[in-house]
What does this fold into?
Amino acid sequence: MPVRELFANFASDFQSLNIIHIIQFRNIVLAAAAAAALHAGASGRAAAVAGVRIDDSFWSPKMEVRNDVTIPDVLRKFEGRHTAEPEEALVKLYRLLKDEPELKSRPGMDVDERRYFDLVTFWIENRGRHCGYPHWLGWGNPRSEQWIRESGYSDASFGSHSRPSWGDYAQDSIPVFEQTTIEGHAVRDTLLGTGIATAALENRDPRYIAAARRLWDNMTGRRMFVTGGVGAIHEDEKFGPDYYLPSGAYLETCAAIGAAFFSQRMHELTGEGKYIDELERVLYNSLLTAVSLKGDNYTYQNPLNADGHNRWEWHGCPCCPPMFLKITSEIPHYIYATRDDALYVNLFIGNDADLNVAGHPVKVSQHTAYPYDGEVEISVDPQTAAKFAVKVRIPGWARGVENPDGLYTSDLSGAPVLKVNGKAV
It folds into this structure.
């Protein structure tokens, strides 16, 4: 199918969301190949890498956007459409190829990983830069969509801004760096925030960091439900205004997962424990409840007050199962984090891990029945004598802080107890 037809209806453009999952799967395959090569040693590495085909197109081989295509070409090809937030997937692909250059060594491969990151930068920084029309909220969807189909935005009076606005729904009303509230389709916006934070990990641009903080603060402090759910309004599956938190709200499973991804990336960017608090909130309240014990049925939306609200075996818009699988497969990577000369213990889940902290091999393990029991035993065993900090997250709820902005409160009392080698500190 031609690209123009594939993305002809932006208002319901979920083809690109599917492509995100394909890119993420490609990342997993490539990473597995690199890991297998490392395990095989130097002699086996080339053979393992040679079995992976990489095509230098920014989404998939059939898109055919290659090295001779410029960013303006991409803009013209998609008529300025912003898609279902592939930014994080492309940054991960960029970082993987940068960190594992052997993956590009197959004869005939011509891959410039920087082009992936340039495309992400383009998508983030060109949101909100358009002719200013249509006015989606004032005109309504039918009139706005008709105006776009008739190419009203191509009028010479609009000058160089020769593309339409896709409105709040697509996070395209104003530039990202001017946004102070999280608006529009909840899945798209949480994934956009995730993409901005992921890009900031690479470019350390203060504008990106500040924008990600503002969006996350507004989402968590004014628009997140006590379960970690987001996206109160059924129409357009979108965020409501500040403090609009009705018990019968929509709360799509994918949106909660998107909020969890956003929170994890913010922790990776800043090292602040409050972001893992909100990731944990989603894992234990929105994620687990969204899937049946057998794993064969799931909920698409999760209102707090639900009467006769059943799980689906299949849904006409099956976006939730791959999002569930994606975050479930990522959880082992979220338990710990390392940064400079510090080990962060983020989640309390029984495990054994081999980590590298400040250049030192370290074995870490946890024994716990959390969250059913609050006792957590953590063992840290460096291979050789080493000096580094161990930063254990004290959950906000355990300190009487249910929400970083006071949106929710509780009457929990008591204080956490921390012991090192059996002695209280």
